[in-house]
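Objective 1.3, modelling of assemblies. Example input:
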Amino acid sequence: MKKYDRECEVVVVGSGMGGMTCALALARKGKKVEIIEQGSKFGGYLSYFKRDNFLFEAYLHVFGDCEKGGLMYDLLGELGLRDKIKFSRIDYTLFTPKGPVIFPRNSDEIIKALSPLFPGEDQGLKNLLNTMKTIYNDFLKLPSPSPVLERYKDKTCKELLDEFLKNEELKNLLMGAWLYILMPPSKTSAIMISVLMMIYLLSQGGFFPQGGSKAVVEAFSKELEKDQTRMTLKTKVTKIIVENGRAVGVETEKGERIRADFVVSNAAARQTFLDLVGEKELAIDFVTDLKQKELSLSSFVVFLGVEMDLEKLNLTHQIFVNTSTKTFDEAYENVLKGEIGDYITITIPTIGDPGLAPGKNKHSLTIWTIAPYHLEGKDWKVEREKIADKIIRKAEEVIPDLSKHILVKNIATPLTLEKFTLNTEGATVGWIQTRETVFGRPQQKSPIENLYLTGHWTMPGEGHMLTAKSGIDAAKLILSR
Ligand SMILES: Cc1cc2nc3c(=O)[nH]c(=O)nc-3n(C[C@H](O)[C@H](O)[C@H](O)COP(=O)(O)OP(=O)(O)OC[C@H]3O[C@@H](n4cnc5c(N)ncnc54)[C@H](O)[C@@H]3O)c2cc1C
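Predicted structure (tokens):
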């Protein structure tokens, strides 16, 4: 067998947010890096596509913590990208059974807006939000010890809410964005909910990059190219080469062998270890744990290019249609059974960024909801149109006659997500977000010497902000060697 076709210092498998941030952080420090991506575009879940001049966000709804003092602001600063990606503030509307509520943009505004509506809850609300903030701040400082993380590590989100609040309507309002966590408060971890709610809603509110995912990916690619990073598309890595317990390079489906001092995998954890490394290189307990850990739910997305005057409906960029009479728990149980779409979100980037659609009163919007990979006894190919129709009808509760104004329609099922990103079973955010997994994700420094992980399958967690942190943290571990 030929030895190697070329060599670099670090080879990065996959170009999601975790892969790109790690590659750029290393390239900035002079490392010779190569990124190998199997897809036809860089970005992974930060992808986009065009149909009839409508630019669609394949997966992105919002960013968070993008202003001074925020996590994303700091991470982009470390990468020298702060002035290359511009963020605009966005608003969230929760459509509740009692009508629409524009979600206040940070904790102080929440207290001001909600305290008068829920007499007797204002001290509890302040204490809850302070506790969530401390959890978030301490989570970002891990592995430093934290009494608050120790206290809440075995608690659910529901237990956290019940400790501070009595009013169920207030609790539901605060957790109105529960779809983002893909599980209801009774099941998800108190720590993960605090972290994610702080990032997307409670700390600085939500943001959207001007020009969408395309602008973010282009900003990264441009800087990576400037730093001489070799970036390869449409090439699947089929093997992480391990010699004497150390990762020494990768092999691609094209038969190329690339030698590297370090390998970083942004690919799904099971693929990385079970397929690319191979079970024989790993301890049995590690393999068993990897096979047993539960995956997060997948997603079902309908992309619509529409021509209609949405301005007059006073809609915001991000909408949660929480009008169902079913509780969050009932809706979640339904999803597990394949009954999808009691709760949906609608994202309309063209409200703040009209350039993404071709002209006045044209909008590209996505309707998203959580979905299982396996539809009990049914086939996604048969069900997809029916489910799309159902969630478009649900969206019509807040955008009347939406279905009459559709110019372009596209659908993504869990199979689509898996096909384009190789995320196992189209998992939306890697692992399920329970108390067991909040600290149970595989570490960035893997059991294979010189193999590191980035992205939502490793610590600290899901979403673009935490996966960007994973990329920079992995780069720091490599640079410290
Ligand atoms: C529908 C949806 C909506 C979402 N909305 C938001 C949101 O609004 N805000 C937010 O912060 N987060 C959101 N998320 C979650 C967020 O997108 C993810 O948690 C995060 O982007 C994952 O990034 P990652 O670094 O793990 O890599 P991924 O995006 O999973 O990318 C991994 C990359 O590796 C490549 N790859 C895999 N295997 C190989 C291989 N063998 N060889 C070469 N390349 C390979 C893939 O092609 C892919 O490009 C959403 C997710 C989904 C599915």
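The two ends are 30 Å apart (CA to CA).
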